[in-house]
Each structure stands twice: as C-alpha cells, then as structure tokens.
Design brief:
- The complex is a heterotetramer of chains A (308), B (201), C (392) and D (94).
- Chain B is of the alpha/beta class and 201 residues long.
- Helices cover 29% and strands 26% of the residues of chain B.
- In chain B, strands 1, 2, 3, 4, 5, 6, 7 and 10 form an 8-stranded mixed beta sheet that branches.
- By secondary structure, chain D is an alpha+beta fold.
- Chain D has a single domain, classed as Alpha-Beta Plaits (2-Layer Sandwich).
- Helices cover 11% and strands 21% of the residues of chain D.
- Classes of the chains: A alpha/beta (308), B alpha/beta (201), C alpha/beta (392), D alpha+beta (94).
- β2 of chain A pairs parallel with β1 of chain D, so a sheet runs across the interface.
Chain lengths: 308, 201, 392, 94
C-alpha cells in the first residue's frame, strides 16, 4: 500500500473551483489524479463536477475533459478509447467520472454497454447518494430511509447495488472505495490502471450540503460509514471477492461502531424511526454476512457473479 | 424604474437587490419581502440570480414592488434599494453597482458607512447577525438574518410596514421559528440606524 | 483504381465510409439501415477497412461514441433510421454544438406509432433544427459521392459541422443498381486525413463544452449559423470540384432539370426528384413547359437559389414526403418563407405524397403537375396541403 | 487559445476552457471561519493536505502544511482531521 508522503505534490484539480465547502467528490477527484497522474482524459456527464470545474472560458481540470450528456459516459469513453487506439496513443488512461444518478439510473445503459464490450477504461462513480448538482433529489443510489428533496419522509427503497451489478458483467475489476480511505482508493485506481478492459470503482463520497452535516465532518462521516458496516470496502478481481481493511475485520459485528453514531451526524437521517434504524441494521448485518461468505469460500469458480 | 407607456408614467416600480452568500437565505429574503408588500395590496415579484448557487459563494436575489401588474421579466440593473445580508461581502462584490443616486442600502453590519467605503450613499445599518446570535437563531451553523433584516428595510425605506413583514415572516416560518424570527425582525426594526437625514426615497 | 460495382445503396454507403478512410464507426442496427453496418462490419473484419467498429447498445450511444472519437481527432461515421434518429435527437445537438464533423447516413423511414418500416422523410426533416447539414440523395451514385463530399465539407474549417446524408429506405437503400467507385488514391488526394486542432490532448488539456453563461452562449450559436451560411457557398464549389475530378456531379444545392423556361416548377426531394424528370419530359412532349428542382440540400436551406428559380416561373408546386401536423410539409413552408418578401413571387401549391412508403410514380407526379397548372390558370391556389392519392 | 475573450472573434469554434487556478475567482471569500496552524503541534503527517477538497493546503519541503487563504473555503476538514489538533478554526473578522 502506497503511503501519503509518496504521493506526488502536483495538483490537477486546480484550487478556486466551484465545489461546496467540504465537498467529498472534490477531495476524491484530487485523489484520482494523485493515483493516475495527468496522462488522463476525463469523461464527465451532467453531475456536480460539470459545475465544479467552472464555466467557460476557465476550467479547474488540468487534464483534458470531455463534458458529455447525462446518460452517455460509457459511450463517450468507448469513442475516445477507440480513437486513441486508432491514433496509436496507448498510454493515456481514459476515466469516466460520474455521479451516482449518472451511473445507477440514467447512465446505466451506456455503462453496461461499454462493460459488455470490454471497453478499456476506468469508470469511477463518485456516489453522494442523490442528485447533488440539482439540489439533492433522490437517486437509485440514495440509501433506504434517507431524506432527499423528493423523499421528504425518507426513501422507501434500498440503495441499488451497482458494484455487484457491474461484477455480473464479468469485467476484470470491480471495487468499492471511500473518500475517507484515500490510500485504499489510490491503490485500487493504480491496480485498475494495470488491467486491460473495463474497471469499475464505486466510491462513497460524502456531501455536506446533501447529507446535512457540518462541512468539517466529510472525512469523519465517510469513515463512520465504513466503521459501522454501512459501506464495505472490497474488490472483485476476475471474479475473486476480497474484503479490504478495515471491512475485513468488521464481519464480526462486535467490532463495528454503532449505527447511531453514523446517523446522528447527518440531518438526512434525523427523521429516521426506530423501526427503520433496526431495519437498516438488519440489512447491514445480512450484507456483511454475505460479504464474509463471499470472501471466505471464494474460490474462482464459486464467486457469486464472477465465474470466469 | 418608471414604466413609461405612451409617454405617461404608468407605474412606479420599486426594485430591490439583495446580496448574500449561498445558504444565507437571499432568495427567502426576496420572497418574504414580496409577500409583505403583497399583503399591502401591491403587485410583486421575487426572483434569484439564476446561476449555480454554492454554499458560501456570493449570490444575488431580487424583488419588485409596484402599484400596477408587473409585465417586466428582465433583470434589475438600477435598483432603488439594496439589502446586504453578509457583513463581509462588500469586499468582493460592489453592492452599489447600478444603485440609483438617492437609493438606500440596508446593511447587516456593526460598522459605519465610512468604514464600508459607502460615505456618499444613503446607508442604514443594523447588526442582524448579532440579533440572530442573541436569540440563538441559527440554522445549519449559520446565523439567520434573511428575514430579520427586512425589519430594518421597513424602517429605512418605509416601502412596507413592519406588521406586513411580521405577517409574511409567520407565513414562512411556523411555530417557534416563526416567533423567534418575528422577534428578530422587531429588534432589527428598533435597532436600525439611518446614517442620513431626510426622508427615505 | 476506379471500378463500377452493382450493389444496394446501403452497401454503396458502406463503400463510401471505407473509401473516406473512416477510423471509428459506432452504430446500432435498425431497419432499413442494417445492411450498411453489416457491410462495414465485413470491411473491418476482412481488413479492407482499417477502422474500429463499436457495436454500441443504442443509437443514443452510437452518436455519443462518435462524438467522443471525433473529439479525440479521428474521422467517424454512423448510420440510422426513424426511431434510431429520434433517439439521437439530444446527441445531435451535442455534436453540432461541439462543432464535430461527424457524417451519418440516414436511411429514411416513417415514424411510429404505428410501426412502419417504409420510407418517408419525417424522421430526418424533424431534425432540421439540430445544427446538422442535411443532404437528400436520389440515387446510389449520389449516396457514395455525397458521403465523400460531406467529409470534405464538414472538415472545412469554415464549416466544422456534422452532416446527414439521407436516402429513402428500400426504394433506394435496398435497390440494387450500378455505381462508380472512384480510384482510391484520387479520393485520398481529394480527402486528406482529418485534422482537429483542438482535439482532446493530454499535452494541450482543454475542457470541452463547459457550462457557458448568458455572456457568451448567443455568440457560439451565431457562429453555427455563420458556418451554415459558409456551407451554402462551399457545397456548390465542392460538387463542381468533385465533378471535375471524378466526372460525377449532383446539382450542388438544388439539382435543376429543365427549369430555365418552365412555367411550372416542381420542387421535390430524394427519389421523387429523380422520377419527376420523366414527368417533365412527358409533359414537355405534350407542349407543357414544366421543370423539376430537386432540393438536394435541405440544411442550409437554399433560399436564395429558390428565389432565383421562381423569378421566371408562373407556378410552383412542392411535393413533401412529410407532414408537420397542424400545418403543412416543411418544404412547402420553407419555400414560401424564402419567397415571402418577393413582390413577384409566383403562387405555390403544397402537395403531400408518399407517406409511409406509398409509391409516388411519374403518373402521380403528372397529376400533381396538372392540378398545379389548373390552379395557375384559375388564378386560385389551395392554401391547405393537398394530400395525393388519399383514400376517401 | 485566448483565455479572456472580449469579442466574438476571440472565441474558439466551440467552448474550449483553459485550465485555470481560480476558475470561480478567489473562493477564499466564501468562508466565515479560517483554519490556523499551530506549527509547534504539527507532526507533518500531511493528512490535512490529502483531505483538503480545494487543494488549498500545499505540502512544504518539510511536509508541514501551508494554507492558501485566497482559496481556502474554511470547510474545517483539516481542523477536524488533524490528529494533534494543531489546526484551529477561527471566526473570520473584518
């Protein structure tokens, strides 16, 4: 695992951008450049980053960036990858950088198409669990029970499980990550860069404006998401499921922090009923148990989705 | 702005620009102000500056108050009044841009006009932030000034009565928040200082 | 070297993409376009075409893949029909707004509901506002030549806009007929590789298509209009130059047939324009001075040429293979618009014919011409569109 | 590429934006609180540097943090994450 001080000092998300104070996705995009450098072409659909980069004639992105239609990240990436190959410019990394709405909802078709075609690019979904750029409306990736402007009494459905959906495409690499675990995210990006084909990383990126917490708590909230088991860090490499630290130790329920610690920091969970908290706790316990099973008895041919 | 149709002054429209930061309630201030004038039988409009509003970033909101129905939909370039919600924003934004010569600026600050570089403007000041802190009127970590300052506006410009503002405040906030906001609005009305003599515009 | 092949217009379109040395094709199958993309797949797999064929999962993604590739500096091609084109609508705006010289074959097909796989021009005409140049072809040779000319045009730095090359489904797309495939070296000399000075490039990192505020958006839209006007001047030059090089010409903006002394001019598009020549010849043999003007380029709309055409004619008749519900055919509307400020404008009768693949024969066109001449002599023209061969 | 277009002729064919520090201007004006570093307590762990959303903290040669107040939005993540509480948030006075 790389250490922080080994990370390059160069910044390719230039300061003075338009992200809200305390923006998790903005930290994450910086981390992406720490991992991949600047021989990167970024493909960005309609999402917070569309505005974060600033209006013409300026941009805060120091790498070439293709702004594209909301549902088209996968398709645009396919075109760019094909063109680079035709122009024999092979060492450029094409990265799709999209929000949860642009990934799990409107953009899933283009992403699935690109994955099914084995398009050689890294797709990072920075997940702030709602349509952030338009003011926190509910998305498919909004968690059960969470407030958004279109679910004032809490979302009625569970979070769409994008990582496992992508694993079912039998792509060579799927991983989850979190802004609050920068080295884990960076390591996964660097591993993805060495793999040919479609690589999918689902990154939990806390959002103060949308999750209703104080802007200073972004990294703390992300950490709690993992420490309470709400969000598990894992990798599925060629179908082989592996839990990453600290999630590997949190299969044991006693090692997890109480769920309330995570909820209490965030205004979006303030209206959560006791029964809903229990219901979510049950969901987490089942998921972690399932991840434990996947990790332990996982020989390549028994992986839940990744049979070679 | 005076709306001239066929050479005759048709309607006297009072135009107000509100300066604040994303998350401070500039748009709410415009809406509550319009609501207050509506209670007095006026034709009203309130609208934000349409752009990506980011928490903390300078934003503008606008209101129009008129005797006749409002047909205009374009932006406000020469306001009669300016309301400044944020005490420091004048360092990065020219709050007097386009303001009419004898227009009035209602400023949430503890400073005097000369300290704000506004010596030759008609300025009224009130420490709305202080009032909010006094009453523990805090929302998402920010002192709420967007409605209380309208109390100051009522006194400084006499464009709306205090009771109309209070009525509009309670329309916007119910229960305890409504009470606290109304109290803050009354205090802002009482504590407003007009730094020029002579009547309002 | 040069060869004459006999094939369907769709396959000939595939040949054109190959001859244009397209580097990335992204396409999704839809009747009646399918045999274009199948032909291209053969060329790519056989190595006859050094290109990348992205088998995308939808037409929406087909156009966006072309946008991504063109923005990365390679020549791109795609093809679609009817609902595929409609699904692309949003992406068409994005391509023209990005000023990318993508060329697309549109195999015209009627729009549903209900399903119809047969040709009319409703699909491409309803995309006339998307900033795409639109060519309409009357035969396979023109399909081949127009695709090559389209790249020459679109990659001209005074244009830099995408273009549709439209051909009617089945009556053209699936019709087997001869076409000359010029010598490849001569095409390569005529059409040098595509260069884009502002392509996505890690050494010159620009962001493409950022948010543009009210301060500049209108200027960028005006520049697209300027490019369209430039195209209106350049298209005839390209057609003439292509004619000199390859001995093949198609009329520039409007293919005029015996219009010089025509009392009645039939304004047509696509294959109807070809068959109209038979009607013109027959009626001239019967002493009636009729001419046919086939609008080859619909966007940019050749308004000035139409005004010139109308100067010495007494009557105009437009034949629209399309209806804009609640009004009339676009060709009728826009021809009237072009002539509106002309005091000496002739009367115009607007006809709707051939929707959903209904056949439009030379006889049908003759009925149209005769009806128009009667309007001229009576001095009274129907304002509403006249539906030809409409069942009671 | 002209970075500050004044006239139409300055414009590229399609909006191409140039990488710029401060694409939204000096965002330092957005904050109401500012982080202040007590270097005596700083252990140069660089956590503040890695967690800053705005790259407003640069890592000096000795790995100690330097805050660029022109662009720091005062979110307070650095103060919250600093293991030795070497960074304190202070209310922005005039």
């Amino acid at each position: 695992m790389v250490t922080i001080k080994e990370l390059p000092r160069e910044e390719y998300l230039l300061k003075g951008h338009a992200a809200c104070a305390g923006c998790g996705p903005a930290v994450s995009l910086r981390l992406l450049f720490k991992a991949l450098g600047n021989k990167v072409i970024l493909v960005v659909p309609a999402c917070c980053t569309t505005v974060i980069q600033g209006p013409y004639p300026y941009t805060s992105s120091a790498v070439p960036l293709q702004n594209i239609l909301f549902e088209s990240t996968g398709a645009a990436a396919s075109g760019i990858v094909a063109a680079l190959r035709q122009r024999k410019l092979e060492e450029i990394t094409v990265v799709g950088w999209a929000g949860d709405g642009g990934t799990a909802d409107i953009g899933i078709q283009a992403l699935s198409g690109a994955a099914e075609r084995g398009t050689n690019f890294i797709y990072v979904c920075y997940d702030n669990e709602a349509y952030g750029n338009t003011g926190m409306q509910r998305s498919g990736a909004t968690p059960y029970g969470a407030w958004t402007t279109t679910t004032p009494t809490g979302k009625g459905e569970r979070k769409k499980d994008m990582p496992l959906i992508m694993a079912a495409h039998r792509i060579p690499y799927v991983a989850t990550a979190c802004t609050s675990y920068p080295l884990d995210f960076i390591t996964k990006l660097q591993k993805a860069k060495t793999i040919v084909g479609t690589k999918y990383i689902h990154l939990l990126a806390p959002c103060p404006t949308g999750w209703r917490y104080d802007t200073s708590k972004t990294i703390e909230v992300g950490r709690l998401a993992v420490q309470t088991g709400v969000w598990a860090l894992y990798e599925i490499e060629n179908g082989k499921f592996k839990l990453n630290s600290p999630s590997d130790r949190l299969i044991d329920k006693s090692k997890r922090k109480p769920l309330k610690e995570y909820f209490s920091l965030q205004g979006r969970f303030r209206g959560l009923s006791e029964t809903n908290v229990e219901k979510i706790q049950k969901q987490i316990d089942d998921d972690m148990e399932n991840y434990g099973k996947l990790a332990s008895n996982c020989v390549p041919d028994q992986a839940i989705y990744g049979r070679a | 702005m005076f709306y001239f149709l066929t050479g005759r002054v048709v309607a006297v429209i009072k135009e107000i620009r509100i300066h604040g930061r994303g998350g401070q309630g500039s748009v709410t201030a415009a809406e509550v102000l319009a609501h207050a004038a509506f209670f007095e039988g006026k034709c009203v409009q309130a609208f934000p500056y349409f752009g990506a509003e980011r928490r903390g970033a300078p934003v503008k909101a606008f209101a129009r108050i008129s005797d006749e129905p409002l047909l205009v939909h374009s932006q406000i370039y020469a306001p009669d009044y300016v309301i400044v919600l944020d005490p420091y924003i004048y360092k990065v934004v020219d709050v007097t841009e386009g303001l009419k010569k004898d227009g009035v600026i209602v400023f949430n600050t503890t400073k005097k006009p000369e300290e704000l570089g506004l010596k030759n403007w008609r300025v009224a000041t009130v420490d709305a932030t202080g009032i909010a802190l006094e009453l523990n009127l805090i929302v998402a970590g920010q002192p709420l000034v967007s409605t209380s300052i309208l109390g100051g506006f009522a006194k400084a410009t006499e464009q709306v009565k205090l009771e109309s503002v209070l009525k509009a405040v309670r329309e916007t906030w119910s229960g305890a928040a409504g009470e606290k906001n109304s109290r803050a609005t009354e205090l802002a009305y009482e504590r407003l200082t007009k730094w020029w003599n002579g009547a309002a515009l | 070297m040069e060869q004459v092949i006999i094939d369907t217009a769709n396959h000939i379109a595939g040949h054109a993409a190959r001859a244009a040395r397209v580097k990335v094709v992204a396409a999704y199958p839809i009747t009646p376009q399918t045999t274009i993309v199948e032909k291209i797949a053969d060329f790519v797999e056989s190595g006859e075409m050094d290109a990348e064929y992205i088998r995308v999962e939808s037409e929406h993604s087909a156009m966006v893949a072309c946008i991504g590739a063109a923005a990365t500096g390679v020549r791109t091609f795609t093809a679609t029909s009817a609902h595929g084109l409609a699904l692309m609508h949003e992406t068409l705006h994005w391509a023209s707004g990005s000023r990318l010289p993508i060329v697309m074959a549109v195999v015209n097909r009627a729009m549903g509901a209900p399903w119809s796989i047969w040709p009319d021009l409703a699909d491409s005409l309803s995309q006339r506002d998307t900033g795409w140049i639109q060519f309409y072809c009357a035969d396979s040779q023109e399909v081949f030549d127009t695709i090559i000319q389209a790249y020459k045009l679109c990659e001209d730095e005074k244009v830099f806009l995408p273009a549709m090359v439209c051909l009617e489904g089945f009556i053209l797309s699936h019709t087997y007929s001869p076409a000359k495939i010029p010598d490849q070296e001569k095409i390569d000399a005529y059409l040098p590789p595509y260069r884009c000075g502002w392509a996505l490039d890690v050494d010159h990192p620009y962001s493409h298509a950022n948010l543009v505020s009210p301060e500049w958006y209108m200027e960028f839209r005006y520049m697209i209009q300027e490019a369209m006007n430039n195209a209106k001047q350049i298209i005839p030059q390209i057609d003439k130059e292509y004619g000199k090089l390859f001995g093949l010409q198609h009329g520039g903006l409007i293919e005029k047939y015996k219009c010089e002394d025509a009392e009645l001019i039939l304004l047509t598009m696509g294959t109807i324009g070809s068959e109209a020549k038979l009607t013109v010849d027959k009626m001239r043999r019967e002493g009636q001075k009729v001419g046919s003007a086939r609008i080859r380029v619909y966007r940019p709309f050749p308004a000035e040429e139409i005004v010139k055409l109308a100067e010495n004619s007494q009557m105009l008749a437009t034949i629209d293979r399309h209806i804009s519900f609640g009004m009339e055919g676009f060709l009728a509307s826009e021809t009237k618009a072009a002539l509106f400020n002309r005091a000496d404008r002739p009367p115009l009768a607007g006809f709707i014919a051939g929707l959903g693949g209904r056949d439009v024969t030379a006889e049908t066109i003759e009925k149209i011409a005769k009806k128009s001449l009667k309007y001229a002599t009576d001095g009274k023209v129907e304002n509403d569109p006249i539906w030809v061969d409409l069942k009671e | 590429m002209i970075k500050e277009p004044k006239k139409r002729k300055d414009l590229p064919l399609t909006p191409l934006s140039c990488p710029t520090v401060g694409s939204m201007g000096k965002t330092g004006s957005w904050r109401t609180f500012r982080p202040e570093v007590d270097y005596s307590k700083c252990t140069k762990c660089t956590l503040c540097w890695i967690d800053c959303p705005d790259a407003a903290i640069t890592r000096r040669e000795d790995d100690s943090p330097e805050i660029d107040y022109d662009y720091c939005k005062g979110c307070g993540i650095c103060a919250n994450e600093c293991p030795t509480k070497a960074i304190r948030m202070k209310r922005e006075e005039d």
